[in-house]
Every structure is written in C-alpha cells, then in structure tokens.
Amino acid sequence: MPETAASSFALRPARPADMRAVRGLVEPYAQRRILLAKEMVGYYEAVQEFVVAESGDGAGNAEGAADDSGGTVIGCGALHVMWDDLAEVRTLAVDAAWRGRRVGHALLDALVERAASLGLSRVFCLTFEVAFFEAHGFREIDGTPVTGEVYAELLRSHDDGVAEFLDLARVKPNTLGNTRMLLEL
Question: Which pairing describes strands 122-127 and 86-94: parallel, antiparallel, or unpaired?
C-alpha cells in the first residue's frame, strides 16, 4: 500500500508479527469502552482482515513495536466480510500521539477500497465517531438492511459484530452503546 501524502506514515496489510502492537493500540480504547477487547487469539485469527499504518520515522506507539523495516505500527483497522455484498469496518484505532494526523482517514479509505475491490456494495460500522464516518459517506441506520433470507443465514453466526449488525436482543443495547452506520459503495 502506498505511503500517505504527509509521508509520515504508510499503510500495508498486517502481518502476524503486528498483532501484539494492534492489541496495544486497541487496549486504551477498550478500557474506555470505545472498542471491544479481544483475546490475542482473535487478533491472530483475523490478521488477514487488518491493514496497519506504520510510522516512517521510527517513532513508537503504546507497545513500541516496530517491524523489520524500522517503522512502528501507529494505527490499524479491519474489514470483516459478512455477506456477498456486505462487510464491517472493525477495530479502527490510532495511537493517541498520531491522532489528528489523518491516519484514521487513510486507514478507513484503504478499508473501503478493499471492500470495493472485493466486489462488495455496502460497508457497515458501529461507532461513537459519527461525524468522522459521515465525512466518509456513512449514514446512520435503523433496523437491519438485509433480506429475510440473508437475516436467517446471518443468525447462524457466532460473531458478536454480526449480532450487533442484526440488532439482536442479546446485544441490546448494543455492546458499547454506539451508532450503527452504513456506507453504500
């Protein structure tokens, strides 16, 4: 993935070696109940879904993790495919020292591009950052924007994110109390 215009960070697909740094980025948000905490095994199982931002100057993050090129993971985000036309943006997090430097915007743009390249037509998210996602074309939704047949299939998932998308009673109010949003590609 290309380096950003600011040239202070670059995006790339995540590697298993990044997952401890990703967890370190998520932890402060999970402690404040902004993101869901996960077990380490969950990060490794989802490594293919993640894109990471890494600094070009070797500056550290909460974990101080650097890859073999000397960059440090300063942001992350994942795209979880839910159905043939639908995915969810998950685990979008940026190190506090890098907030306000468009890292989150670049990560979200990369995830939306990934969704489009997979032939998906809709991207869902649960967020407290409504204005941020609205700036990227997401809109608040009520209900579940899938057919009854797809709804029945998605009910078979054990994933809490899918349950929140479906607005199931077992996650009401949704786990964190955030806003359900959708982007039509």
Answer: parallel
